[in-house]
Amino acid sequence: xxxxxxxxxxxxxxxxxxxxxxxxxxxxxxxxxxxxxxxxxxxxxxxxxxxxxxxxxxxxxxxxxxxxxxxxxxxxxxxxxxxxxxxxxxxxxxxxxxxxxxxxxxxxxxxxxxxxxxxxxxxxxxxxxxxxxxxxxxxxxxxxxxxxxxxxxxxxxxxxxxxxxxxxxxxxxxxxxxxxxxxxxxxxxxxxxxxxxxxxxxxxxxxxxxxxxxxxxxxxxxxxxxxxxxxxxxxxxxxxxxxxxxxxxxxxxxxxxxxxxxxxxxxxxxxxxxxxxxxxxxxxxxxxxxxxxxxxxxxxxxx
Length: 303
Known about the structure:
The chain is α/β, with parallel strands linked by helices. It is built from 10 helices and 9 strands.
């Protein structure tokens, strides 16, 4: 199969056991690439394990939204990528394949490391212009270079701002807590966006998150919005299977509240990245990721 086509998951390992993608409104696609990581590799195996974990949800109706994605969702399989090529070539292949999917479907992508989000935003920009961005992460990803590499999974937000792919004033980061110089840590806020650090969210859940959620919804309004979810936004107690775990993160409950309450935004796509199954013997991380993707899809269907 040539680069630029998709490799379909087998029938027993599609997300929610959904059918292959045809004319369904929602498309799920894997991006099995982790060539830009700076610590532990393994996120290329995230898509298959998240799909496997999702099979426990295949006959479930969401307890809040009272819907199921089944009947609305097709699995496009995994992108075929030139993994041994320079990052720019990999990203070009991702952008091309994503653009084809985005032209006909509301897409959810499963990574893969966080470098894959930049080509997804490039493809989205061609459709919508600058989009609002909700970014869940332990890391700011706003370095102009990362460990002397000019581009990677720690630079994509900076690059998206520089390329005008997102609306700077409608970019929101949630869960940030890693070490880093001030210029990077506060970059989004300095550009007019919002940052809610993990420290600021400690001990808050349920109704205590309402003022923050209201502020995010007011800031973004009806602007087309992309949601990117790095699983390491969670504390390693909830998601140990990731390449760069950072203690002191969000709880699964907090993240679920954010996903449920932000569902009314004009969301035009989502990715979930940095799930590295080899570092999680109990499959906590892939199960959490499957739940979050399922919740996102149900929230969109219930609108």
